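User: Here's a protein and a ligand (iron/sulfur cluster). What would the complex look like?
Assistant: Let me lay out the input and then the predicted complex.
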Amino acid sequence: MIGSMTALNHMIDSEMDKLRACVHCGLCLNVCPTYIERGDENDSPRGRLYLMRAVAEGRLPPTTSAFARHIDLCLGCRACETACPAGVRYGRLWEAVRADIAARQQPVHLIGRFQRFVLNRLFVSRRRLRWLFAPARVLRRSVLLDRLARMPILPLRLKKVFMLLLATRPPRIERFRPSVQSDDVREDHDADRTTTFPTRQAVALFAGCVGRELFDHTNRATIKVLQEHGRRVINLKEHVCCGALHVHAGEVETARELARKNIDIFELSRGETLITNIAGCGAMLKEYGELLADDPDYRRRAQSFARRVRDISEYLMDIGFRPGPRPVNVKATYDAPCHLFHAQRVTKAPVELVRRLPGVTFIPLAEAHVCCGSAGIYNLIHPQLAGEILHRKLNNVRRTGADVLLTGNAGCLMTLQSGVIEMGWDIQVMHLIELIALTYE
Ligand code: SF4
Ligand code: SF4
C-alpha cells in the first residue's frame, strides 16, 4: 500500500521524527471533543495517528471505510497539538490525509458532491460568491426566515442552514449602548490618541469571503477601531477566499490557486500588515508559506506574506491598545476559536482586550479553548455530533451568567448564536471587535 498514500507518505517522511515522538501518553485525549463525546479511541488524536501510520506502513488498506470515517469525524480543531508534550503536528498530517482521501474518492452522497461543486466552482470567484449569497442577504432581513428556522417538519440540515443564517444578523446592541459621557472625556481621548499614534500607517483588511457577504457590521467595527488607533485601512476588495474550507475538505490544489491570487492582491495594496478578524482565515493565511513551499515562484513571497498576517486582537495588543472612553456595562465571557487559540497560538490577547474595556465585567468560561462544533461546515456534515459538542459548550456559557458571549471567528459566532437562539436564551453572541467599537461611540 505504501506509495498509494502519496501526500500522507510525503508528510510522514518530513514529519517522521515528530510522528515517532508520539509516546502514546494520551494527554491529548481529554481535550479532543470527538473523544470526549464518543469515548472511542479511534476518534481520539492518538487513535487517528495510529490509523494513519498503519495505512502509510501498509498494515491497513487506505480504502477501508472505517479509516475514512474516523478521519472525517475529526473537527480539525488542533486542540491535541496544544496538549501534546512531544510536539506532534497532528493538523498537518490530518490535512494531508484528507487530501488523499478526497483525491481517491468520488463523493457518493449528494452533500459531498454539492460541497465539491461549491468549493471548486463558487468559492473561487468573488462575483459568483456575491450571487450565491444574494438570496441569503435578502432572506436574512425577512421575518420569513424566523419561521423557516423554527419549522419542525424541515430536515435537520436544512433547518440548521436557516438557523445559521439567522445567527448572522447584526447583534442587538441597543441595550449595550455606552452610557453618555461629557464631551470633555471624548476630547481628552482624541487628544491622547493623536499623541500616541502620530503616523497614519497603512494596514490592509482581509474581510473574508463569508465575512464580506454576511458580516459587514463586523468589518465596519474593525475599520473603526483601527482608525481610532491612527491606522489608514485599505479594504482589499478583490481578495478571494483564503482556502481554509478547501484545505479542510482536502481540495488542496484549489487552496493553492486562491493563495497565489491573495498574495498578488496584497502585494499590490502596499499595506504593511494584513489584518483579519476571522480566526479560520488568519490561521490559513499564516500557513501560506507551507502551502506554497513547493512552488518556486511563490515560496518566498508566501513566507513574507504569512509573516505580515495578524489577527485583529494580537495586532491591537502589539500596537498599544487604547479602548474608547465610554463604558459599556455588560457581563461578558469569551470563547476562544480553535483556529486562534490552537492554530495561531493567540491565547492571551483577546481576553486582555476585554479586561481593559471600561464598564465590562469579564467572567472566564470553563473549557473556553475546547471546540464549539463549528469547524467550517462540520456542523452541516455531522449535525448530530456537532450538536452534542455545542450543547456542552452552551451549558458552560449558561453557568457564567454573562449577557454577552464574545468570540473571534465568523463560523463559531454563527454556531454559538444559532445554539443560543434555539435554546431561547437572552444571551447575545458577538465578535469581540464589535464590543470594543462600542466604547468609541
Ligand atoms: S499527546 Fe502527543 S505524544 Fe501523547 S498520545 Fe497525543 S499525540 Fe501522542
Ligand atoms: S483536531 Fe480536534 S477533533 Fe481532531 S483529533 Fe485533534 S483534538 Fe480531536
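Summary: The chain has a mean pLDDT of 89.
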